[in-house]
Amino acid sequence: MDNIIHLQGDPNSRLTPLFLVHPISGCMLPYVGLEPLSDFDDDEERPVYGINSYFLTDRAKQQANPQDRPRSLEHTAEVYIRWIQDSGLKRSEQPWLLGGWSLGGMIAYRMCTLLAVAKNQVVLDCIMIDSPCPRQFPSFESEQELLLVLSLALKSVQTRSKAFDFDAAGFASILAKTGLPRPSPLPTEAPNRARPRADEEWNGTTARRLAPDGVEWVDGDGHLSDSGSSSSSGSSDRSRCPSSATTSPSLSSPSGGMKEGYFASEDEYECKSKADQLRLSICESIHTFLVLLSRESSFGGSEPSWELLKPYRGRVTLIKCSSLASPNPALSERRKGFAATFFSDPTMGWRAMGIGANLRCLRYPVPVAHDECFDSKIVPLTSELLRAALVSVRG
């Protein structure tokens, strides 16, 4: 995929283009379903673009630009600003208009901060779709907790697209191919999770043996089964892929940056299809950004606290969900509390960043949970709220 995709509107319009940053999957495909966001009374249609993460771009581009691999939210914001500037999709004299869903909103806010504060650029609005302030994102206490949240995020993607539909064994195979690293630092008492043998055939039993505690796997019949179950149906061709027998390296380099190559290269395994490659890229994107978010936290994170950053004082629009989904029982109480706290806060923690005077909040008029924002039945509402946010944007 290209790193920036045209979604709608007239690329030659005089109106400032809107750039929507990908959610944690790294893929901008949820934005493809948006209805037209331009005001129907206007003579021009505002161009809208979606930004894919580094992991969703072509492998050749990744190999040619290893410096673009995300190392922090700040670094990611800098990379995406450069991508937009290099693309020629926005004229240099035009102001900026940015947004995104979930993680995409967090990155868009960082981009606005860099543009307005560090680069003295004009920003018309930062539109965040149910994006909590990441400064209180809980750090991960163990590899198991990280893999549990990763698994739940992947399952959410899986249930929303047939393109990512695969059974428990295939899911475990994708996870093993990545050679997932451990978050750093790990508690000393954290168990050393077993790795599959290089000659081991993948089947349901193997998937559950390697599963983090509490993860619900979807079996070949589409039924949920607890990770502790030992029953298994037959394995598919996709589930017989042996994994690399190498031990996954530590996440952090001595300088605090992220090491290269802790996901298996394409030479180490054979992707059965483009869909497998896409799944692997999404898995890598989710994993990387979960770790980066844990580093951004004011509680145990290794990156500079958000309170120490000069805040963005421009306009911010928060589109907030109106329903809190029931948390997975396997999640820690601390992580459940994070979701509940930010759902109950009308500004999702952003007012504490000192942007209250310029923050406006829009709310879904019917119960909508975070993961449902771009479901087919909800995307008309999301489009309507985005149109409402853009009505007062001049230019």
Q: How do you describe this structure in short?
A:
By secondary structure, this protein is of the alpha/beta class. The protein has helices at residues 59-64, 73-87, 103-118, 143-159, 168-178, 204-209, 274-296, 333-344, 379-391; strands at 4-8, 18-21, 48-51, 96-101, 123-129, 216-218, 224-226, 316-320, 359-363.
How would you characterize this protein structure?
With 395 residues, the protein is α/β, with parallel strands linked by helices. Helices cover 30% and strands 11% of the residues. A 7-stranded mixed beta sheet has the order 1-3-2-4-5-8-9, sandwiched between helices. It has a two-stranded antiparallel sheet with strand order 6-7. Strand 6 and strand 7 form a beta hairpin. Helix 2 crosses helix 3, helix 4 packs across helix 7 and helix 5 crosses helix 7. The radius of gyration is 21 Å and the shape is globular. About 27% of the residues have low confidence.
Radius of gyration from CA coordinates: 21 Å
Strand content: 5-15%
**Total of DSSP H or I helical runs spanning 4+ residues:** 9
User: Going by CATH, what is the homologous superfamily of the largest domain?
Assistant: Alpha/Beta hydrolase fold, catalytic domain
Mean pLDDT: 73
CATH fold category name of the largest domain: Rossmann fold
Which second-level CATH architecture of the largest domain applies? 3-Layer(aba) Sandwich
The CATH top-level class label of the largest domain? Alpha Beta
The total tally of domains equals 2
Low-pLDDT stretches? 163-172, 177-271
For the report, how would you describe the main beta sheet? 7 strands, mixed
Strand order in the largest sheet: 1-3-2-4-5-8-9
Q: Report the structural category.
A: alpha/beta
- Structure summary, number of beta strands: 9
